[in-house]
Amino acid sequence: MAEDKIGLFLPCNVIVEEHENGKVEVSAIDPMASMSSVKNDTLATLAAEVQAKLKSVIEHLE
């Protein structure tokens, strides 16, 4: 395990909001920013992976 209880910092919160014009906005916490306070190189690598996956998911939404 890279860091006990790190799930508390991970971007588990994603906001999906529909605006009055019908457009949908998806927001997520940047894992690189949230992990920067924890000095653990393994976490930095994992945060980069999570960031790439979140970005890919959001970019592929229609």
Structural commentary:
The N and C termini lie far apart (36 Å). By secondary structure, this protein is α+β, with helices and mostly antiparallel strands. It has a two-stranded antiparallel sheet. It has two helices and two strands, in the order ββαα. Strand 1 and strand 2 (24-28) form a beta hairpin.
The main sheet orders its strands as: 1-2
Report helical residue fraction: 25-40%
Spatial separation of the terminal alpha carbons:
36 Å
Rg over CA atoms = 14 Å
Mean pLDDT level = 82
Count of helical regions: 2
List the main descriptive attributes of the protein structure presented here:
single chain; 62 residues; alpha+beta; two-stranded antiparallel ribbon; 2 helices; 2 strands; 39% helix; elongated
Topology:
Layout: E1 14-18, E2 24-28, H1 31-35, H2 41-59
Please provide a brief summary of the model.
Helix content is 39%, strand content 16%. The protein has helices at residues 31-35, 41-59; strands spanning 14-18, 24-28.
